[in-house]
Design brief:
The complex is a heterodimer. By secondary structure, chain A is an alpha+beta fold. Chain A is built from eight helices and 24 strands. In chain A, the strands form six sheets. In chain A, strands 1, 3, 5, 8, 9, 11 and 12 form a seven-stranded mixed β-sheet that branches. In chain A, helix 1 (about 5-25) packs antiparallel against helix 2 (about 30-50) and helix 4 runs antiparallel to helix 5. The longest helix of chain A is centred in the last third of the chain and has 23 residues, at about 380-400. Chain A is elongated and about 135 Å long. The N and C termini of chain A lie far apart (about 80 Å). By secondary structure, chain B is mainly alpha-helical. Chain B contains six helices and no strands. Chain B has helices spanning about 1-15, 25-45, 50-65, 75-100, 110-135, 140-165. The longest helix of chain B is centred in the C-terminal third of the chain and has 27 residues, at about 110-135. Chain B is globular. Classes of the chains: A alpha+beta, B mainly alpha. Chains A and B meet through helix 1, helix 2, strand 5, strand 9 and strand 11 of A and helix 3, helix 4, helix 5 and helix 6 of B.
Chain lengths: ~425, ~170
């Protein structure tokens, strides 16, 4: 470890020299006596100081967790000579904190991101650190820092150990019971009742039997009332393509939380719900960097969506012009596009309107930016706030005029409420069209 | 916070302790003492570790000035030495706890215990040296040469140790 003298050493040396020389020059024994303890402390500390060598191995017991869970970090700390008391500083980002630290079953104190006074040994002392994941995201521990100090406080020891450990914390997603019903379905089997007729379980209509109809479809009860044979028509259970459009262009924040957090939690809930319904789910995260994921099914797709959402926290300044940049395969025809946006950036607003113009089935859940903006305190600020709110109201009306269902999500309420509001508008619009 | 308060309280006592009966030196002693206290306050408030040493040196200079013209040996040196060590250690600990840039030294109670033991040890060593210095001997050339030689030897040893270890 790198050894450096502390300011104590210099202070004690100066005081010892000053006292001894001053006492000798002035002929005052008091000054020599005053210098004595500093000289003694210095002599003992310097004579007893040794080089300290410390090693550290780190391993994460798992690399994925959900918000609120803990990830265990196992550290093996060795030192030569043994018995050195080391502070281990973890290079953690915001959103992860030390929950507890133990060695041989005994709890060890920690302050902030530093585990204090770990007694190392030559054979290695195992230190178990439970990292509490308080915020979703992709995290990386680049290095761990070891610090120590000799018994007399005259020397500091320091070493930075590169470890490069990465882990991901997935957002805690709410359970969504009723999802949005798509206007169009695919041919694949799923849980959505198609509006087209075909082989399925759901009853749709009755019609006279024609040549080629399956005799098992004859409705004998209706047939018995007349002279002709009548058959049941049914609707097949299909799946649909759902694309989640997460607006990451603007991320107003208040404290640790930002609008993107709400959008990501909502996206995680929607992705989980739709994948459970056997839908194909894709993702387009449009921000400084455009990221997309082609629609797919299953748990693998769910984790890929979550992984892509993790990366949306990192901001790189790459200008993205419009929806034309999204590859066609990421937006299959007839797919239901659910936008999650705070409606702050005109590019995101135009993109959603543009997609609707191209014939996609678009619905928007508005992430309330108002919660992340400080309350106005002056008359000018209140006026500006009113104008801003009117502009936002205008944007909502613009969406509704284009036939895009939009509803705000108040985080105090379950996400289901916002979806129910969007679905209610879609049903009403559907009835109006019919 | 408590360590900082201890450091400043003791520094204030150390600044006020030295007095001189000589008219010309009295105000100077007080001025230098107050300067030392001001430096210590600045060091603790600004979190400047490098300033603690200068504050201690200025306080010792004030004490040294107060000894000029004093007819007898000051019996309060052991307490002064213990208090000086205590204020230096408390100031360093307070700053280091606040900045967190150095290795921690355990809990606050453990730190107070360590400081108390250091102060007692410093007072005891000073007392022993003072008692040895107060022993009446005939001041001949041999004694003076021995004194100078001892101081030289101590300083040389310290310099050699410091150069070897840093």
């Amino acid at each position: 470890m790198q050894r450096t003298a502390t300011p104590r050493l210099r202070t004690f040396a100066v005081l010892a020299a000053l006292g001894l020389v001053g006492g000798l020059a002035a002929g005052r024994p008091e000054l020599a006596a005053l210098a004595a303890p500093f000289a003694v402390l210095l002599a003992i500390g310097l004579a007893g100081s040794r080089d300290l060598d410390a090693e550290l191995d780190a391993e994460l017991r798992r690399d994925r967790a959900i918000e609120g869970e803990e990830i265990t970090l196992a550290l093996m700390v060795t030192s030569d000579p043994p018995g050195a008391r080391l502070d281990v500083e973890l290079d953690l980002g915001d959103g992860v904190e030390i929950g507890s630290a133990t060695t041989d079953g005994t709890s060890i104190g920690h302050q902030g991101k530093v585990i204090q006074q770990v007694t190392a040994s030559t054979g290695g002392r195992q230190l178990i650190v439970n990292l509490r994941c308080t915020h979703w995201g992709s995290y990386r521990i680049e290095s761990l820092r070891l610090r120590s100090r000799d018994r007399w406080g005259l020397f500091d020891y320091y070493r930075e150990v590169p470890v490069a450990l990465g882990f991901k914390v997935f957002p805690e997603s709410a359970t969504v019971r009723r999802l949005l019903a798509p206007v169009e379905t695919r041919l694949g089997f799923g849980d959505v009742v198609s509006k087209h007729k075909g082989a399925g379980l759901e009853f749709a209509d009755l019609r006279p039997m024609v040549l080629g109809d399956d005799p098992r479809q004859i409705n004998w009860r209706v047939t018995a009332r007349g002279a002709d044979l009548w058959v049941n028509e049914r609707r097949p259970e299909r799946n649909s393509d759902v694309v989640l459009l997460v607006d990451t262009l603007t991320k107003p924040r208040r404290g640790v939380e930002m609008t993107l957090d709400l959008a990501v939690r909502a996206a995680a809930a929607l992705a989980t719900g739709h994948l459970r319904r056997n839908d194909r789910v894709g993702l387009v995260a449009f921000g400084e960097t455009l990221r997309w994921l082609r629609p797919g099914m299953g748990d693998v797709q769910r984790y890929q969506i979550l992984d892509t959402l993790m990366e949306s926290r990192s901001a790189r300044q790459v200008y993205w012009p419009d929806v034309g940049a999204i590859p066609r395969r990421a937006l299959p025809a007839k797919s239901l596009i659910i936008g999650l946006s705070p409606l702050l950036d005109p590019r995101a607003i135009d993109a959603l309107a543009d997609l609707r113009g191209r014939g996609f089935d678009v619905a928007v859940v508005e992430i309330p930016a108002e919660l992340f903006v400080p309350s106005p305190s002056t008359d000018e600020e209140r006026l500006a706030r009113r104008i801003w709110e009117l502009q936002r109201e205008g944007t909502r009306h613009r969406f509704l005029r284009h036939g895009i269902a939009i509803a705000p999500w108040d985080p105090a309420d379950p996400f289901q409420h916002a979806l129910a509001e969007v679905e209610a508008f879609r049903r009403k619009a559907s009835r109006t069209r019919a | 916070m408590s360590l900082a308060a201890v450091a400043l309280a003791i520094a204030a006592a150390l600044a006020l302790y030295p007095t001189s009966d000589i008219n010309n030196i009295g105000p100077l002693v007080r001025l230098v003492g107050v300067a030392g206290l001001a430096l210590m306050i600045g060091a603790v408030v600004a979190g400047a570790r490098w300033l603690v040493g200068w504050a201690a040196v200025v306080l010792v200079v004030a004490y040294g000035l107060s000894l000029i013209g004093r007819p007898s040996i000051d019996g309060g040196v052991p307490v002064y030495a213990a208090a000086l060590l205590l204020t230096i250690e408390s100031a360093y600990s307070a700053i280091e706890r606040r900045t967190g840039l150095t290795a921690s030294r355990g809990s606050a109670s453990r730190e107070f215990g360590r400081l108390a033991m250091s102060a007692v040890a410093a007072g005891t060593i000073t007392l022993v040296v003072l008692l040895l210095a107060s022993t009446p001997v005939s001041y001949g050339l041999l004694v003076q040469v021995s004194g100078v030689g001892a101081v030289g030897a101590v300083l040389t040893t310290l310099i050699v140790l410091v150069r070897q270890r840093t």
